[in-house]
Amino acid sequence: MYPDKQSKSAALYQRALSVMPGGNSRHTVYFPPYPIYVERGQGCRIWDVDGVERIDCINNYSALIHGHCHPQIVEALREQAGKILSVALPTEAEIRLAELVTERVPGVEQIRFANSGTEGVMFAVMAARAATGRNKIAKVEGAYHGSYDTVEVSLYPTPDAWGPDDAPQGVAPSGVHEGARANTIVLPANNVEAGRRILRQHGDDLAGVTIDPLTKNLGFLRVTPEFLSMVREETRALGAMLIFDEVYSFRMGFNGAQGELGVIPDLTALGKVIGGGMPIGAVGGSRALMEDLFDPRGGAKLSHGGTFNANPMTMVAGAAAMELYDRPAHDRLARLGERLRAGLRELLKITGRPGTVTGAASMVGFFHTESPITDYRSMLHTMMTDPSVGRLANEFFRHMLNHGVYMANHGFMVLSTPMTEADIDFILDKAELSLRSMSAEAA
Ligand code: PMP
Q1: What CATH number is given to the structural domain containing 348?
Q2: What is the pLDDT of residues 236-295, one digit of tens each?
Q3: pLDDT tens per residue, range 371-406
């Protein structure tokens, strides 16, 4: 049972605390009183250092589309490891992965690789500035686009500082440069009229607009077709770049979120899935734009270095993963996602518990409230005015953890191709057990 002071995980956490602040290098993998330490994974399952088996419903926040240690990905890595790990020269492996991604994502005719989604977004933002000669980047309030200055503006603003609903003020978290705050424009999610007005107001200085089509940290909020069309139209009219952050939402469709939604951005940031479980990020766009920005033969507008960019280990893992993630695999996984969403909705009905199920394809959000989350402010308002929402989420997470299901403590599940209908039904069984046994006090 978790937590257990006698467990190996608890002991490892104590050891970690003396050498890493909070024992940790990644805030999202910490949960109190201590995170579970993992020993190994196979398919859709992981085993912790105390020998407990769980089904992994996070899949490294979407990156592991084929779960753990898929034999073809492991074999590709093993073969590559015997040849060369990294080198200051190109390899054929990067051409293969570039071909696989460009074939598939409509707005990506050419691509350049980096090592994290954060870098993918960062290069997309720099590309937008270099292409337009302008400074300002617009983002949706509360949207996560990685860990660096520009896109951390208004990630978690508070009501005292966030300004009017239809004219949000940029709020810089500590550590973020004041210049980044001043040059980041904040849009209210899905508010077409306000969004249009704000973009036009900054039109002369606007380099680009970043959009995550299925905004994960707003509860997998879907950007509406009306808002997307408005942003596409306005960026075109203002001569600014539309940037899709598909680091996460690439899972929405076989051809990525843009293929699914039929809106083609100027620049696309990618990461996670396309690296097959290895560190990756990428930026892509039309051939003309990418050559203008990055082609060293013609005096590239941007300098683009990175010791591990396109490293062959990541490239072969990514290529194997993308080959395996063909249309039937995508469609099958999306059906499993639908089975889980439908099952969770049914469970809410039969247990009479409050809740909302969101998501698309293989991404599932499960929140213990019926208050609609329409943007960052409504989400924060719900959390602040109804503390039971957070408490129930925690309680549910703990129950699931103790019944063999590892999901995100804030209510997200992301599926992998090794999962079967039986695995989804297992998750649903445990969800039912958890919902039924949650204390009356917490409700
Ligand atoms: N953008 C989005 C939408 C993300 O979800 C993430 C990571 N969760 C990133 C960017 C950053 O990717 P990475 O963690 O690989 O830097």
Answers
A1: 3.90.1150.10
A2: 999 999 999 999 999 999 999 999 999 999 999 999 999 999 999 999 999 999 999 999
A3: 989 999 999 999 999 999 999 999 999 999 999 999
Query: What is residue 53's three-state secondary structure?
Result: strand
Ligand 1 mean position, distance from CA 429 (Å):
31
Does residue 145 have its Cβ closer than 6 Å to ligand 1? yes
Residue 406, both tokens: 């590892």
245 lines ligand 1 (CB under 6 A): yes
Same domain, 226 and 360: no
d(CA 240, CA 131): 9
DSSP character string of 404-429 = TEE--TTSEEE--TT--HHHHHHHHH
- Of 266, 289, 324, the last residue of a domain is 324
DSSP string, 83-97: T-S--SS--HHHHHH
Q: Is there a contact between 370 and 354 (Cβ–Cβ < 8 Å)? A: yes
Q: Find the domain containing 290 and state its range.
A: 71-324
Q: Look at ligand 1, atom 9, and give the residue with the nearest C-alpha.
A: 146
The structure tokens 């990541």 sit at 314
CA–CA dist 362, 62 (Å, integer): 9
CB atoms within 10 A of CB 17: 13
Cα 45 vs. chain centroid, distance in angstroms? Answer: 21
Beta strand spans in 35-109 (E)? 38-42, 45-48, 53-56
Q: Is the full-model pTM beyond 0.90?
A: yes
Q: Do 226 and 147 fall into the same domain? A: yes
Q: Which residues are catalytic?
A: 144, 245, 272
Residue 174 placed within a domain: yes
CATH of the domain at 290: 3.40.640.10
- Does a structural domain hold residue 2? no
Q: Is ligand 1 within 6 A of the CB of residue 358?
A: no
DSSP, res 275: G
Pocket test for ligand 1, best of 119, 150, 247 (most atoms within 8 A of CB): 247
Q: Are 220 and 61 in contact (CB under 8 A)?
A: no
Q: What is the 3-state secondary structure (H, E, C) of 272-295?
A: HHHHCCCCCEEEEECHHHHHHHHC
